[in-house]
Design brief:
- The complex is a heterotrimer of chains A (448), B (341) and C (35).
- Chain A is mainly alpha-helical and 448 residues long.
- Chain A contains 14 helices and six strands.
- Chain B has one domain.
- Chain C is an all-alpha fold.
- Chain C is rod-shaped and about 50 Å long.
- The chains are: A mainly alpha (448), B mainly alpha (341), C mainly alpha (35).
- At the A-B interface, α2, α3 and α13 of A face α3, α4, α5 and α14 of B.
């Protein structure tokens, strides 16, 4: 196998692992906060339903965390196995957040273990809720630290290269690179958003499947509201990301927006297809790109004409950008509609088709997450470390990557199917109505 | 002590931690599966699951910590080991993934599912075998530099007696460590039947463990004479390790003080492990890579050490809390209360 | 301004969103009428 093939398969394997891992990682980052909010509401309002909601979410969460942990271990090792040259360089400059990520994860793992096995162990429920704080913090900070590494790949700084040697290394400056704030905030907030919409989809699905219990209605209302808040925040931070790109990675923005010529009053190209180098069927929003990039309708936006041919990312990232943005917008609209509808007693929000739309929100959110990551990663091409190391120079020279790709594909298939089967089985065997009834009898004479 | 040695000592300590908690974990999974096969699950499953349940995720972190740390402190290892270890480590990762997730599937989703239990029991047993290959490779003689990049010679690797002794040692040590610990744990849970059975397993697995461990030192003489000579310098550590081993077996044999037996066992492995590590110095990979030519820049090293100290400040109290709530909590160990989510 | 948007504003929005989430989460009168 020539090295070109090793590079190709390394890219495919990394993409596969990340695409699979990000599903579980997103749930892993987002759901602890949702559990925390539900339990907090439950304790505050003394409402058994919210407590049970937290408890059932926590149960399902364990399964996804397990897959998240093991696939996270896989990607951690694959970075060194598939991109040894990159990791050798990166290890010198950006190892600090990688290392801290382990601590965050460690912290989370310990308290998750304690949290899961101490339900009802404490007289004071607030103490139990307190155990969840380090879980949520650890989960979110795992995302923060690991995204710092990814941000570094987009905007490397904190070192100089003199005669091929790394000098003047400053790990802190490398961590706090310009790509970091927008990227970290975007990753974390979309994890919250996706988690909220996934949990909303589950509640909506139960309602569709014949349950009319108020438990599900409360769950749906809570998660849709949370989803709305996080979706709006996502859009705002997304806009900031555009401004970051315009300033520091103009080629990525230009490729994602199909902005070919540097110009003032730049329009924003939405949708459209590319055929023979021409953009067709696109909607042009006048001044849109100038506003997105610089908050100023007449500002000049750098186009692809400013970059050498071999440093332009693939243009198909425009489609990924569109998918991500349109799904985000759609979820904002859907949740506003639902929220206002509930407040105003609109009939539409309790119809079957509307609930199906909410159910559909879960896969859509994941598609948005995946497109966002593909956009971020493909948009950095041809660089693995922008302007410093190309992807093809970073890959392994090993000849067995294709075989490993097949093995890992099989593994992810087994894990994916396994986790779905187990989750379905878990909740089907123990429906919420029965569990609520059980808890009533358990409490016996207690005052409810 | 210089930064290089400080760095590797920290990492080596985490690897040691992983070997002990990982062995307990993997061995327990295997004994659980084995008891299903022989119809003894009534005796073992309860005690094993009591221990395993709250700690499984923590085990994994020790490993992640080690490999993230080694890239941080010794970035060149990424180049040498990353390029050559693609296949063995990938297999290890796949096993880890199966082990971790199917453990969770069985425990939280489908209690008592036999297929799942077999899957994670077997996967767990193969993990030490596949990961121990890394130690074998570090002895040198299996990697050639071709056109500036290291290439692993699989034929030499898999026909070397050293490889297979280390594989056997890793498996039997896993079962030995696990059985000794679980004997103690079962005894604390006042589960007499389980204690007896696990004590038997511990005694059975003590023998292959010590034989292969001794054999490996002997084989190193042929395979890597430098390392063998270095080991002689640290002979007292290995002797001490052997004495502790005898102590553990004696305590088990006479059914006395299982807590001490596990303590001695930890000491035995600590002396052997640090003795081995020290005699490996200064090489990370014979003869290509030493601590010194692979070490990161001082700025990163200091940043990592500061992060490490701050992190420990956070972790140690949390670990103590975890152990007090589960490992050393009498009511929990004896199964009196169950507060599972 | 650009520097503020790129370096600080994302975290402000993130934290604000979490705070708002906690504030609005307990407001469930709209679905809790049956109790």
């Amino acid at each position: 196998m020539g090295n070109e093939e090793a590079v190709f398969y390394s890219r495919v394997l990394t993409e596969l692992t990340l695409s699979f891992h990000i599903i579980y990682a997103t749930i892993g980052v987002g759901v602890p906060l949702m559990i925390m909010i539900a339990q907090w509401v439950g304790i505050r309002k003394n409402d058994e339903h919210y407590i049970l909601l937290a408890r059932r979410w926590a149960r399902g969460f364990v399964i996804t965390v397990a897959v998240g942990v093991v696939t996270g271990t896989a990607i951690g090792l694959q970075l060194s196995l598939l991109w040894p040259n990159f990791m050798e360089l990166a290890g010198n400059v950006i190892a600090l957040p990688l290392f801290m990520e382990t601590f965050a994860f460690f912290f989370e793992a310990i308290f998750l273990g304690i949290y899961l096995y101490t339900w009802d162990r404490f007289e004071n429920q607030k103490k139990h809720l307190l155990l969840l704080v380090p879980v949520a913090i650890g989960a979110s900070f795992s995302a923060v630290f690991i995204t710092m590494v990814n941000a570094f790949m987009n905007a490397p700084q904190g070192f100089d290269i003199v005669n091929g040697e790394l000098v003047n290394i400053n790990p802190i400056i490398a961590m706090f690179n310009p790509a970091m704030p927008t990227k970290v905030a975007h990753v974390v907030i979309t994890a919250y958003m996706t988690a909220a919409f996934v949990l909303a989809a589950i509640a909506a699905f139960r309602l569709l499947k014949g349950s009319d219990h108020i438990y599900h209605k409360k769950a749906l209302y809570l998660t849709m509201k949370l989803g709305l808040v996080f979706a709006i925040a996502t859009a705002i931070i997304g806009d900031f990301s555009g401004k970051y790109l315009a300033e520091y990675q103009p080629e990525k923005l230009a490729a994602a927006e199909w902005h070919f010529e540097t110009q003032e009053n730049a329009p924003l190209v939405l949708l459209g297809v590319m055929s023979d180098g021409e953009v067709k069927y696109a909607i042009e929003v006048p001044f849109g790109l100038s506003i997105l990039a610089h908050n100023n309708p007449s500002a000049e936006v750098i186009g692809l004409d400013q970059f050498p041919e071999d440093e332009i990312p693939p243009l198909y990232i425009h489609y990924l950008f569109n998918i991500m943005v349109f799904i985000g917008m759609w979820m904002v609209l859907l949740s506003i509609w639902y929220w206002v509808g509930i407040k105003r007693n609109w009939r539409s929000v309790s119809t079957r088709w509307f609930r199906w739309l909410i159910v559909l929100g879960a896969p859509l959110s994941f598609i948005a997450i995946e497109s966002g990551w593909w956009l971020a990663e493909v948009g950095r091409q041809p660089w693995i470390l922008r302007k410093i190391m190309r992807v093809e120079d970073a890959a392994t020279t090993s000849g067995q990557v294709d075989l490993m790709l097949m093995l890992f594909a099989l593994l992810y298939l087994i894990l994916g199917i396994g986790s779905i089967v187990v989750l379905r089985r878990m909740f089907r065997k123990n429906p919420v109505e029965r569990e609520l009834a059980d808890r009533q009898t358990e409490k016996g004479g207690d005052i409810q | 002590m210089n930064l290089e040695i400080l760095g590797i000592t920290v990492l080596w300590t985490f690897l040691f931690g992983y070997i002990i908690v990982g062995a307990i974990d993997f061995g327990a999974g295997f004994f659980n599966a084995y008891s299903l096969l022989t119809g003894k699950q009534r005796i073992l499953t309860k005690v094993i699951q009591r221990y395993l349940s709250p700690v499984w995720e923590v085990t994994n972190v020790f490993l992640v910590f080690f490999f993230v740390g080694i890239i941080g402190f010794f970035p060149k290892t990424a180049f040498y080991y990353g390029t050559t270890l693609l296949v063995p480590v990938s297999i290890g990762v796949i096993l880890l993934a199966i082990r971790g997730s199917y453990y969770a599937f069985e425990t939280y989703g489908a209690r008592g599912h036999k297929g799942y239990s077999f899957m994670y029991g077997l996967a767990g047993l193969l993990i030490p075998a596949s990961l121990s290959i890394v130690l074998t490779i570090s002895e040198g003689g299996f990697i050639e530099i071709v056109d500036g990049s290291p290439v692993l010679d699989y034929w030499v690797l898999f026909t070397s007696p050293l490889t297979w002794s280390i594989v056997v040692l890793s498996i039997s040590a896993t079962l030995y460590i696990s059985a000794v610990f679980l004997t103690w744990y079962a005894n604390k849970a006042r589960d007499i039947e389980a204690t007896d059975l696990l004590r038997k397993y511990a005694l059975i697995w003590s023998l292959p463990t010590i034989i292969t461990a001794g054999g490996i030192i002997f084989e190193l003489r042929r395979h890597n004479f430098d390392h063998y000579t270095n080991i002689q310098t640290f002979l007292p550590m290995f002797l001490l390790s052997f004495i502790l081993f005898v102590g553990t077996v004696w305590l088990l044999w006479t059914r006395r003080n299982y807590g001490w037996a596990f303590g001695l066992l930890a000491g035995q492995f600590a002396f052997a492990f640090y003795g081995y590590g020290a005699s490996h110095y200064p090489y990370l990979l014979y003869p290509h890579l030493t601590l010194y030519d692979s070490f990161t820049n001082p700025a990163m090293a200091i940043a990592l050490i500061i992060a490490f100290i701050l992190g420990l400040g956070l972790l140690i109290p949390s670990l103590v809390l975890l152990m007090r709530l589960f490992l050393f909590n009498k009511d929990y160990v004896r199964g009196k209360d169950d507060f599972h989510v | 301004m650009v520097e503020f948007i790129i370096f600080y504003a994302p975290f402000i929005i993130l934290i604000a969103a979490i705070v708002v989430a906690f504030l609005i989460a307990p407001m469930d009168k709209a679905v809790n009428k049956e109790d």
